[in-house]
UniProtKB/TrEMBL annotation:
Pathway: Cofactor biosynthesis; thiamine diphosphate biosynthesis. It comes from the Bacteria. This is Phosphomethylpyrimidine synthase. One of its GO terms (biological process) is thiamine biosynthetic process. Its cofactor is [4Fe-4S] cluster. GO terms for molecular function: 4 iron, 4 sulfur cluster binding; phosphomethylpyrimidine synthase activity; zinc ion binding. Catalyzes the synthesis of the hydroxymethylpyrimidine phosphate (HMP-P) moiety of thiamine from aminoimidazole ribotide (AIR) in a radical S-adenosyl-L-methionine (SAM)-dependent reaction. Its EC number is 4.1.99.17. Keywords: 4Fe-4S, Iron, Iron-sulfur, Lyase, Metal-binding, S-adenosyl-L-methionine, Thiamine biosynthesis, Zinc. The keyword Nucleotidyltransferase does not apply. Binds 1 [4Fe-4S] cluster per subunit. The cluster is coordinated with 3 cysteines and an exchangeable S-adenosyl-L-methionine. InterPro entries: ThiC, ThiC/Bza_core_dom, ThiC/BzaA/B. Pfam families: ThiC_Rad_SAM (PF01964).
Length: 435
């Protein structure tokens, strides 16, 4: 192999098998894909050791991709349950799975994913370090934090969230400029606490070049973590968030100098009217690197419905340049999601991604809607179910309230506008009342 990473290949004009697959899926010419990848605007996260992967690319001009977070926790440690969720997520079309396991046999689960799952696999090594070393946070050494990154690379993960943007400088800014909900990123809070207790610089920032070397060796995509993403509307677009973003911009440049693929993580909670500006600022500071947003949740008041608050924000974010949406489930802020929560979260996220793809004019995106509307006009119920984003639910709803007139639905019956318009335009009589 005469290239290190997919980015390196693109810069050398080498067309990898992953690029060929992606170009076909995205209906994109190879030279255009190569140019965007060479510039860092499109990435193909694919660890050389994840041989069962079905590659996908992430970039704002491509189809918007979605990620599903899963993994064990101290209270929910059943690996089989998590694997069931993984299989459902892949079947439902999630392009990526992030394993956020923070308890139990984390390596066994991670290796199962990279040996059996065709989706892009991401992890957050910082969580795993706490599980793996099994000792007080303060006693974990800088070298040990880095060793976990190497371990995840060897286990075959395709991208890693590394919280390297919260260095001492950002931490000072954060302490000087009080926030309502402080740091809500799990990894961010861990590394901030470690820095406070040890007085040391963030090892992921201090030893960033070593991390880049690992990423280059295995072709790991760096997902530059946003420790200071706002956790409530009141903290959105504040000094800590922007300060960290500037650091992430600099770290993006350094990664690209070593041909390491990068994406940038983003908010968080954010009022609807701030989303567009945030997307534009990120694009400018990080020179068009793909933006991976965690929501954004457009209001703080809807626990139980945060798949909806996130889908509203995600659709707007993706319309203005986000490339990758992290799903949010109805269980957000409340508990570890169960199988049904995962399904609801995926559907909401897919709707947001698709709505944005239509707005962005992604090739082929609106064909799906055209086909659905054609079936609707013909009152072709089977076709409508088949084209539904959730065929099972569509079928179940219709079956639960059978209409008297089979071709209509129980909403309007004889008043069915679609049926009556078809008839009158075909020259038939429409009487409604006595039918
Ligand atoms: S009955 Fe009403 S809601 Fe149902 S298909 Fe016809 S127009 Fe649409």
């Amino acid at each position: 192999m005469n290239y290190t990473t997919q980015m390196d290949a693109a810069r050398k004009g080498i067309v990898t098998k992953e690029m060929e697959i992606v170009a076909k899926k995205e209906q994109m010419e190879i030279p255009e894909l190569l140019r965007l990848m060479a510039e860092g605007k499109v990435i193909i996260p694919a660890n050389k050791l994840h041989t069962c992967i079905e590659p996908n690319a992430i970039g704002s001009m491509l189809k918007t991709k979605i990620n599903v977070n899963l993994g064990t926790s101290r209270d929910c440690v059943d690996l089989n349950k998590e694997l069931e969720k993984v299989n459902d997520a892949v079947k439902m079309g999630a392009e990526a799975i992030m394993d956020l396991s923070s308890f139990g046999k984390t390596q066994e689960f991670r290796r199962k994913l990279t040996h059996e799952c065709p989706a892009i696999i991401g992890t957050v090594p910082i969580y795993d370090a706490v599980v793996y070393y099994h000792k007080p946070l303060k006693e974990i050494t800088s070298q040990e934090w880095l060793d976990i990154v190497k371990m995840h690379a060897e286990d075959g993960v395709d991208f890693m969230t590394i919280h390297c943007g919260i260095n001492k400088n950002t931490a000072d800014r954060f302490k000087d400029n009080k926030r309502l909900t402080n740091i809500v990123s799990r990894g961010g809070s861990i590394i901030f606490a470690w820095m406070e207790m040890t007085g040391n610089e963030n090892p992921y920032f201090e030893h960033y070049d070593e991390i880049l070397d690992i990423c280059q060796e295995y072709d790991i995509t760096l997902s530059l973590g946003d420790a200071c993403r706002p956790g409530c509307l009141a903290d959105a677009s504040d000094i800590s968030q922007i300060e960290e973003l500037i650091t992430l911009g600099e770290l993006t440049r350094r990664a690209w100098e070593k041909n390491v693929q990068v994406m940038i993580e983003g908010p968080g909670h954010m009022p609807l009217d701030q989303i567009e500006a945030n997307m534009r600022i990120q694009k400018t500071i990080c020179k068009g690197a793909p933006f991976y947003v965690l929501g954004p949740l457009v209001t703080d008041i809807a626990p139980g419905y945060d798949h909806i608050t996130a889908a509203i924000g995600g659709a707007i974010a993706a319309t203005y340049g986000a490339a990758f949406l992290c799903y949010v489930t109805p269980a957000e802020h409340l508990r570890l999601p169960d199988v049904d929560d995962v399904k609801e979260g995926i559907i909401a996220s897919k709707i947001a991604a698709h709505a944005a793809d239509i707005a962005k004019g992604v090739k082929g995106a609106s064909d799906w809607d055209y086909a659905m509307s054609t079936a609707r006009k013909k009152l072709d119920w089977e076709k409508m179910f088949e084209l539904s984003i959730d065929p099972e639910k569509a079928r179940r709803y219709r079956a639960s309230a059978k209409p008297e007139k089979e071709d209509t639905c129980s909403m309007c019956g004889n008043f069915c506008a679609v049926k009556n318009m078809n008839r009158i335009l075909d020259g038939e009589i429409v009487s409604i009342y006595d039918e």
